[in-house]
Design brief:
The complex is a heterotrimer. By secondary structure, chain A is of the alpha/beta class. Chain A is built from 11 helices and 8 strands. Chain C is α/β, with parallel strands linked by helices. Chain C has a single domain, classed as Rossmann fold (3-Layer(aba) Sandwich), CATH 3.40.50. Classes of the chains: A alpha/beta, B alpha/beta, C alpha/beta.
Chain lengths: 301, 222, 132
């Protein structure tokens, strides 16, 4: 039987879980990935490897393997944007064969929001259908077309959620379906509006969702008010309230703003930790992996 | 209807520059309704091409004609004389019209003067919006009559993506999120439970995924 | 500049201007050939009228509209403005460049005089842009 991942063990044991994000570079040098992985070694239980969020970079499968070799347990991210069901299942089999034990199923930023906006649209299946496909591969040992998988196949599947997405009823329908489709853990988009997040997790508790899946709240250190404004302008799944931007602006120069961004991140972690239903923290580094150890230390994780 | 937009005059000049006698051929059906390739647009584009010809010294001789329907051989017949007396045809029909002409007149260059865009409706004066992706296996009954394949940028079948906002789509800020519309519509007609079931992967074979499509009706083939 | 006579076509709204006065002024603009076309409303003008004028040799086309807010048919003058913009864009695409067509809005205080001042400005602008 394939080994159970560290992440799965922690989910089952009820531990407080820290995960972080690794954004590979648009390059073929595995050294760069190894350097970044150095910052991620100590604390996170597992590290996500982003799947081309802004355009082509080193593949998330290769990045996951590099992390695995460096002694870090990867969460292999797979978006449904670029690959049809043939490629997705093939990559899943390949990943499992290379020792990958965790996958995160998501639809991904639409191609027009990346640097490759002229790309064809694939979206053969959606993120929930991908989760269900992984579940079928895990539970029944068969692929979507009914082909029996040769040998063992076992991965831990997770999904993403956007607590800020309204209306809450629609948000919960989607979250419920993700869990029903096999998401054993949920990593959220970065949280900046604590009240909205508290309302969302409370609802998830009431619906019994938090007892069926491990919710890891996303946090992200903002570098500056300008970065925050540009991010929320481009990505509607990233809701950054004006109060956060005002606080960054009020901090002063670039160095002071970065420091304030870090302070906001730490405060957010501390507040989120106390909420019922939160099983961990997911640190979205956005390519700034070197900041992860600082966050872990300052937040006392 | 099929909605199209005219190509730019510089693009048309580049396409037509090696010809002298040109028939600009309009279509009286969809492209007339969407104000892209009917009789009026034939006159406007022809006039602009004459002005361009004059400025660029191209010597175009342009004839104008509009037939009822370019995608139908019965109507194409009416254009035969005009097509024969010109060197080339600039069709202001949709992509189907252009190809119907090309299949019928083997030795005549037939060019597309429009970019065929989508199947849609006139949403408001001067605004046409896409509504159908012609996927070949309609799912509208499951989604309150709002098509997630056409109107969701990620053609998600199980709910919105994280970028959904109550007033807009993440990808197209000028458009509503289809999933917000589906949610409110299903709720309004008392069918919200349709959203709680997991929709399986769609069979794309009846759509373009199965190759160029043809429908055969044996009862009409006698 | 060679001062070669210009061909100008004036489309005007019959509610905005007195036809006789317009023709009289049009006849007093020197060697330039000014044709006038009366419209029941400037909103009646369409892309083809305007393009045809250029195609048949006009160096410039003017659409004279009522003052904004004064259109007898409420928004005819607004439509005329949009159509002139569309033709300006088409003429640009055709290689003629911009500025060969414009709207002159009737000025409520000094009607025809203001219009002909604007027409003179327009003609000078065309002379400059076309090197005449």
């Amino acid at each position: 039987m394939p080994q159970i991942s560290k992440l799965e063990t922690m989910i089952t044991a009820g531990n407080f879980i820290i995960t972080a994000e690794f954004l590979p570079l648009p390059g073929a040098d595995s050294k760069a990935a190894e350097t970044a992985s150095g910052f991620l070694k100590d604390r996170p239980a597992a590290v996500n490897v982003a799947d081309n969020p802004h355009g082509p970079i080193l593949s998330s499968l290769a990045g996951s393997v590099i992390l695995e070799k460096s002694g870090i347990e990867p969460v292999y991210q797979i978006v449904t944007r670029d690959r049809n069901r043939i490629a997705l299942q093939s990559d899943l089999l390949g990943a499992a064969a290379l020792g990958i034990k965790n996958v995160l199923c998501l639809s991904g930023h639409h191609q027009t929001l990346t640097g490759s906006r002229q790309s064809a649209s694939v979206y053969d299946i959606d993120s929930i259908q991908l989760l269900a496909a992984v579940k079928q591969m895990n539970d029944d040992g068969v692929l979507l077309d009914g082909t029996k998988i040769a040998g063992d196949f076992k991965v831990l599947a997770g999904a993403v959620a956007t607590p800020d997405m309204k209306p809450l009823e629609l948000n919960m329908i989607r979250l419920t379906k993700k869990v029903a489709a096999g998401a054993r853990f949920i990593q959220t988009q970065a949280v900046f509006d604590l009240d909205a997040f508290a309302g969302w997790i409370k609802k998830a508790n009431q619906l019994g969702i938090t007892s069926k899946t491990a919710i890891l709240a996303g946090v992200m250190p903002l570098e500056s008010a300008a970065e925050a404004e540009s991010l929320r302008e481009k990505y509607t799944d990233l809701v950054i309230p004006d109060s956060v931007i005002d606080r960054l602006k009020a901090a002063g120069d670039a160095a002071a703003q970065a420091k304030e961004g870090m302070a906001i991140c730490i405060e957010t972690i501390k507040k989120i930790q106390s909420l019922d239903g939160v099983r961990g923290i997911h640190i979205l580094s956005g390519g700034k992996e070197h900041r992860v150890p600082e966050i872990v230390k300052a937040a006392g994780l | 209807m099929i909605v199209a937009e005219r190509k730019s005059i510089p693009d048309l000049v580049e396409i037509l520059q090696d010809h002298k006698k040109i028939l600009v051929l309009g279509c009286g059906t969809c492209v007339t309704v969407c104000l892209a390739g009917g009789e009026r647009e034939v006159s406007i584009i022809s006039s602009a091409l004459r002005i361009a010809s004059n400025i660029h010294g191209l010597d175009f001789e342009i004839e104008e004609l509009t037939i009822e329907r370019q995608c139908d051989n019965v109507f194409i017949e009416e254009a035969t004389d005009a097509i024969n007396r010109n060197d080339a045809v600039l069709s202001l029909g949709c992509g189907a019209g252009v190809q119907a002409l090309a299949e019928r007149y083997a030795k005549k260059p037939i060019y597309a003067g429009l970019d065929t865009a989508f199947i849609g409706i006139l949403e408001d004066r001067g605004i046409w919006a896409e509504k159908c992706a012609a996927c070949g296996a309609c799912v509208l009954h499951q989604y309150g009559g709002i098509c997630p394949i056409t109107r969701c940028a990620k053609q998600m079948l199980n709910g919105p993506c994280g970028g959904s906002r109550e007033d807009r789509c993440e990808v197209r800020p000028d458009r509503p999120c289809a999933w917000q519309l589906i949610y409110h519509r299903l709720k309004g007609i008392g069918q919200l439970e349709r959203l709680t079931e997991i929709a399986p992967p769609k069979n794309w074979e009846p759509g373009h995924g199965g190759g160029c499509r043809v429908i055969v009706r044996e009862d009409h083939r006698i | 500049m060679t001062n070669k006579p210009l061909n100008i076509v004036l489309f005007y709204c019959a509610n905005a201007l007195d036809a006789a006065a317009l023709r009289k002024n049009a006849g007093e603009t020197g060697a330039d050939d000014i044709k006038t076309v009366s419209l029941p409303c400037s909103g009646k003008v369409n892309l083809l009228y305007l393009l045809k004028a250029v195609e048949k040799g006009a160096d410039g086309v003017v659409v004279i509209t009522c003052h904004h807010g004064d259109c007898k048919f409420l928004e005819g003058n607004l439509r005329a403005q949009k159509r002139v913009e569309a033709v300006d864009a088409l003429l640009f695409e055709s290689g003629l460049g911009r500025g060969h067509i414009r709207v002159i809005q009737k000025n409520t205080e000094n009607g025809v005089k203001h219009i002909f001042e604007e027409i003179e400005n327009f003609k000078n602008q065309i002379r400059v842009s076309s090197g005449r």
